């Protein structure tokens, strides 16, 4: 069993977080058994503060009680430690790996912040820029998908890979933002490949049981907005 | 080993992210062609090979571009196995990557803010740099890097390259801005590591002379002050100045 080979595994997380979802998908892909420690609303747990004193954020993977922080760093760690378990998450070829890492960094540095800016009540100009950034980002990801998938179902080819995890774990939030703003993030006309990919990703065995349901995310968003308004 | 002509680096002489790649290539014993880029007016080659960010450094290997310095460093390490830059142990790798992320996400912007601000804003930026250095100091003294000469162990590794190529700006900004950033009494472990790093032959061959860096920094600072006073008619556009500052400290896009 994967966990027995690797030793005790725990994941500190929070169910709405797309970053936590990344770690969970990676662990599921490798068949790793782990204890999931859900952070409660309110003050952060002692364990989280001790395990990630720099950022105090989730996810944190604890393996042999040693913490690994930052979602895509956790994904790479899981990929290497449980290399024997199933197929690799990162491609074997160094150039393909570089492309996966480049686009994952783009998603976190450019695409995700634009989504956050759109979802929040930002001043008009900032929102206009954010929408432009989003559309640029989706266009670039559509092109990246065409190049990296080589006609197959995922950025990683036949199965979910590093970049699939990086982008796919935002799909739940994309849907919620679409509902809230009336904008279309992925559409059949402009990003047909990504639309098909999104369905495949969300219905994958490693994803479907851990991706939060839309209704639950929508409720959560309403709560957050209510809090922010108070 | 590939012949040198298969590797070409588009970079900028004062850009810390370019230095990271140059240092890594040197440590690996890899020859390469170098093309100096004007960061305010990117060349057609730079725009072609890095259309997303339009910034240096870009490493071309057999005409295929690799972009983003930390991505480039890992690409180099995974393509040429000799003289490894990444640690062997998966946990140590994760640790190195985490602190590289910290260096880019927290430390570099704080150092940049020291340079581009004044008065109360600058004081806050200096405090931010100190807070960040405290975290690194703690790791070096009591944490995961305790007892190591370099973050990579006995030899320079990924984290040394990422932190080290950029940390020389601390001394430059101390002089130009007349602030204290790395007090050896407060940060003895970090100070000792930085001095050791800067003494390595490959590092000395990579990082420009301090006089050149001081002159460059003073020039940029003067431009910034002129722009904010509205007194200069010859200074480049603000965006250009910002690019220059960003290239200086934050390097490329990331």
Automatic annotation (TrEMBL), chain A:
Protein name, entry field: Glutathione S-transferase
The keyword Cytoplasm appears for this protein: yes
Domain GST N-terminal positions: 7-86
Catalytic activity reported: RX + glutathione = an S-substituted glutathione + a halide anion + H(+)
Annotated source species: Ensete ventricosum
Family according to the record: Belongs to the GST superfamily. Tau family.
GO CC annotation: cytosol
Chain's role: Is involved in the conjugation of reduced glutathione to a wide number of exogenous and endogenous hydrophobic electrophiles.
UniProt EC number: 2.5.1.18
Enzyme class: transferase
Primary localization class, coarse: cytoplasm
Lineage: Eukaryota, Viridiplantae, Streptophyta, Embryophyta, Tracheophyta
TrEMBL record, chain B:
Tree of life domain: Eukaryota
One Pfam family this sequence matches: GST_C_2
Gene Ontology BP term (one): toxin catabolic process
All copies of domain GST C-terminal, residue ranges: 89-220
Keywords: Transferase
GO cellular component terms attached to this protein's record: cytoplasm
Entry protein name: glutathione transferase
């Amino acid at each position: 069993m994967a966990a027995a080979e690797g030793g005790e595994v725990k994941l500190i997380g929070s169910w709405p977080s797309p970053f936590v979802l990344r770690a969970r998908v990676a662990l599921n892909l490798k068949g790793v058994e782990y204890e999931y420690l859900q952070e409660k609303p309110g003050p952060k747990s002692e364990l989280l503060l001790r395990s990630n004193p720099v950022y105090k954020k989730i996810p944190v993977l604890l393996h042999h009680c040693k913490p690994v922080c930052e979602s895509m760093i956790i994904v790479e760690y899981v990929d290497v430690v449980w290399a024997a378990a199933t197929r690799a998450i990162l491609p074997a070829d160094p150039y393909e790996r570089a492309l996966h890492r480049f686009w994952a960094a783009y998603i976190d540095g450019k695409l995700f912040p634009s989504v956050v800016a759109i979802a929040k009540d930002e001043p008009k100009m900032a929102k206009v820029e954010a929408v432009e950034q989003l559309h640029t980002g989706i266009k670039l990801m559509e092109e990246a998908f065409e190049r990296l998938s080589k006609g197959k179902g995922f950025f990683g080819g036949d199965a979910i890979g590093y970049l699939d995890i990086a982008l796919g774990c935002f799909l739940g939030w994309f849907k919620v933002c679409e509902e809230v703003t009336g904008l279309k993030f992925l559409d059949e006309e402009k990003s047909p490949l990504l639309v098909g990919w999104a369905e495949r990703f969300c219905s994958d065995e490693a994803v479907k049981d851990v991706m939060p349901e839309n209704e639950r995310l929508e409720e959560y968003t309403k709560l957050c907005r209510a809090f922010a308004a108070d | 080993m590939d012949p040198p002509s298969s590797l070409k680096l588009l970079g900028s002489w004062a850009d810390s992210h370019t230095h990271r790649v140059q240092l890594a290539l040197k440590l690996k014993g890899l020859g390469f062609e170098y093309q100096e880029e004007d960061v305010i007016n990117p060349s057609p080659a730079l725009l072609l090979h890095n259309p997303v960010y339009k910034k240096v450094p870009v490493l071309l290997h057999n005409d295929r571009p690799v972009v983003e310095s930390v991505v480039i460093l890992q690409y180099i390490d995974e393509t040429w196995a000799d003289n490894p830059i990444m640690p062997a142990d998966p946990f140590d790798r994760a640790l190195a990557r985490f602190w590289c992320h910290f260096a880019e996400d927290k430390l570099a912007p704080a150092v940049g803010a020291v340079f581009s601000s004044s008065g109360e804003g600058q004081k806050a930026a200096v405090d931010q740099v100190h807070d960040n250095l405290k975290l690194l100091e703690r790791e070096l003294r009591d944490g995961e890097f305790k007892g190591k000469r370099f973050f990579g162990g006995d030899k320079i590794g990924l984290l040394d390259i990422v932190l080290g190529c950029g940390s020389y700006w601390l001394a430059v900004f101390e002089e130009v801005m007349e602030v204290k950033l790395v007090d050896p009494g407060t940060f003895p472990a970090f100070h000792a590591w930085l001095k050791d790093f800067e003494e390595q032959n490959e590092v000395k061959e990579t990082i420009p002379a301090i006089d050149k860096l001081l002159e460059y920094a003073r020039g940029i600072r003067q431009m910034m002050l002129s722009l904010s006073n509205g007194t200069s008619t010859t200074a480049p556009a603000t965006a250009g100045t910002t690019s220059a500052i960003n290239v200086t400290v934050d390097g490329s896009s990331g």
